[in-house]
Amino acid sequence: MADAWADIRPRLAGLAAAPAADEVFGSLGHEWLLEPPLSPGELAELEAQLGVELPGEYRSFLRTAGRGGAGPGYGLFPLRRIDGSWQWEGDGADLTLREALAQPFPHTAAFNPADGFTDPPDEEDFASEEAFTEAEDAYWARHDAVVFAPEHAIGLLYLCHLGCALREVLVVSGPARGQMWADDTADDGGFRPLLDGDGTPLGFGRWYRRWLDAAQPAA
């Protein structure tokens, strides 16, 4: 496992030196750089705080490649130790329920919390703008309470932001442990497993390397 990520930093350096490096989405933020890896003690402390061992591929990445930085979207959320507590930082990193990462994410197939919701109110159906506004506010309050309920994120580790509040996550606990999923709830798309070209679920390693492969033509 120690050598599994040995090629990553040289590949990132090659991409950073390419003429079109700045044209790759998100690269202006992460600049093709990885932060230092975690030490064995830091990783042990992190997992003790979370109460769960992280999936193997991501765990080895943290230990031998880096604790965050260059990666899909705007980059991998980096780990920070703040006042003795390890946490991920980034736009949407706070959606990770650290205290619930050891609880099993129950799903193995795509699901959408927005299923069953009717369309929002139509202003033409109301006698006044005030009545329409009241009905619309009530609709979206009910919608958001269901769609963005924190229990959907149990067992999920948010790793990156793709823009427009679309994010990708690693399943830490449950039957899909080790798989990468998309959180498309901002588009009312729900949650879905990310699949490789042959339809098999993507693990962290293949997910990260697919991003590297896609960025390679910029070199």
TrEMBL record:
Q: Name one Pfam family in it.
A: SMI1_KNR4
The chain positions of domain Knr4/Smi1-like read 37-210
Q: Which residues form a coiled coil?
A: none
Organism's domain of life? Bacteria
Q: What is this protein called?
A: Knr4/Smi1-like domain-containing protein
